[in-house]
Amino acid sequence: MPKNDLWGQGVQYPALSDVPDIETALGGIVNDVVPQTVLRFANVNARAAALTGSSAPVPGMITYLLAEDRYDVRMADNTWQTLTPGPWQVLPFASGIGADGGSPGYRTVNGDAQLRGRVNRTNGGRFTYSNAADWLLATLPTAVRPSSTEYWTQAVEIGAGTYYCRLELRSDGSLIARIPPEADGTTGGLHWISIAWRYSLV
User: Fold this and answer.
1) Whole-number Cα distances in Å, 179 to 27, 65, 88, 130
2) Which residue has the higher pLDDT, 10 or 62?
3) Has this prediction a pTM greater than 0.70?
């Protein structure tokens, strides 16, 4: 009967009393050890194609994706969570909104999402207070949307003594800026808004 490794990892090796069968003996060792190494795949699609059936992913499995340059870990809820920072992606700006500085974008980091950069109005106008509507800055893709609305106070270009605004990131991906009442008109409005933030995806 095969024996187990000393670390309780389920890796078996043949005992001297076992019937000689090198294919079965070595196959058992390989198939026990490989899932506990860092598995390398060309991309996320190659991983999905390979890890099926008897080779399906299990909690604790770690993979490296070459195209994405990313380590992922398999969680108990059967999802993959990123262990290393993913690449920055360009913020999907709403109509009339563009980059002011800091390369506005988003990325995932170990179960969190990060935002960076400053945004402005592409027509050179200012963000001003409105009772009727908030300012839609961007709509984030499903993979980086929070499960519930995130709220935070953010730095802005100073206008009429205004040093902040409130940002909301909703579960539908809408990134909304709510401007304080004092930031109104052509002289009191804001030229840019910072969006820097980090929030949990789990």
Assistant:
1) 64, 41, 27, 8
2) 62
3) no
